[in-house]
Design brief:
Blueprint: E1 3-14, E2 17-28, E3 32-36, H1 43-50, E4 58-63, E5 68-69, H2 75-81, E6 83-86, H3 98-107, H4 122-134, H5 150-162, E7 168-172, H6 180-193, E8 198-202, H7 206-212, E9 215-220, E10 223-228, H8 230-234, H9 237-244
Parallel strand pairs: 3-8, 3-9, 6-7, 7-8
Antiparallel strand pairs: 1-2, 1-4, 4-5, 9-10
Helix pairs in contact: 3-4, 3-5
């Protein structure tokens, strides 16, 4: 598999504490990957590095065919390069309809200020309908987002990220707070998205990770402790120790 994202020997220290410690791994084009690990393992810091929010003290973060260094780009340039991040709490505009939220997301493709250059068009209405359908909200286009369920808000936010046409989506704990039915739909959605985009899911919920049925990377103390199928990593005595020893 061709690497879309390659993290090579990165380390980050906060006041002398190594939150990320010589971390290396790759994410392939159109790969679905789960990153798990106990609290403090470095999962958030990893996403902060990839999106340019935190700079590593050492190492390389390489992107795309030309292995461009993401460390030379700011947050906005990284978003423009095709990396979208979904935080745990949905941040949709509750007073606006689903269509309006998606239209706004389309109006700001890849980075701030592009909204100033954007004009709505018939194409954008069609794209909004397409995006809503992609995330299972085709029936809810004219509903105010504040009326949606928690799960539907999460899907809307994923749709807003898709409006920016990312090649890699980083998704933080998508299943948190969802009903069982919503979690099942989210699994299906993420699996389907990974047919066209690379999707990295940071997740605590092992049931959910099992349903994703993808390669799993276990982080511990800022490094990769184990990698492989969920069954493979959860049979690893070091992984068992880390989880039981919490
Ligand atoms: P996770 O997301 O896996 O729970 P984090 O990436 O949030 O882990 O944190 C990794 C470690 O780095 C933790 O011990 C955390 O306390 C520490 N850390 C993260 N960000 C900062 C910061 N800005 N300043 C100091 N310590 C931090």
């Amino acid at each position: 598999m061709t690497a879309l994202l390659e993290v090579r020997g990165i380390s980050v220290s906060f006041d002398g504490f190594r939150a990320i410690n010589n971390l290396s791994f790759e994410i392939g084009e159109c790969e679905l990957r789960a990153i798990i690990g106990p609290n403090g393992a470095g999962k958030t810091t990893f996403m902060d590095i990839v999106t340019g929010k935190t700079r590593p003290n050492e190492g390389q973060v390489l992107w795309g065919e030309g292995s461009k260094s993401l460390l030379r780009m700011n947050e906005s340039q990284i978003a423009q390069a095709g990396i979208g991040r979904k935080f745990q709490r949905p941040t949709v505009f509750e007073d606006q309809t689903v269509a309006e939220n998606l239209t706004m997301a389309l109006s700001a493709p890849r980075g701030p200020f592009s909204v100033l250059r954007w004009r709505p068009s018939a194409d954008s209405a069609a794209r909004v309908a397409e995006l809503a359908a992609e995330v299972g909200l085709a029936e809810h286009l004219s509903r105010k987002s504040g009326e949606l369920s928690h799960g539907q808000k999460q899907w809307l936010e994923i749709g807003m990220l898709l409006a920016q046409d990312p090649r890699l989506l980083l998704v933080d704990e998508p299943a948190a707070g969802m009903t069982l039915a919503e979690r099942e739909q989210t699994t299906t959605l993420l699996r389907r998205l990974s047919e066209k985009h690379a999707v990295v899911v940071v997740e605590h919920d092992m049931d959910f990770v099992r349903r994703l049925d993808c390669k799993v990377t276990v982080l511990h103390e800022g490094s990769v402790l184990a990698e492989g199928s969920l069954d493979h990593v959860t049979a690893n005595p070091e992984v068992i120790e880390v989880y039981l020893g919490r």
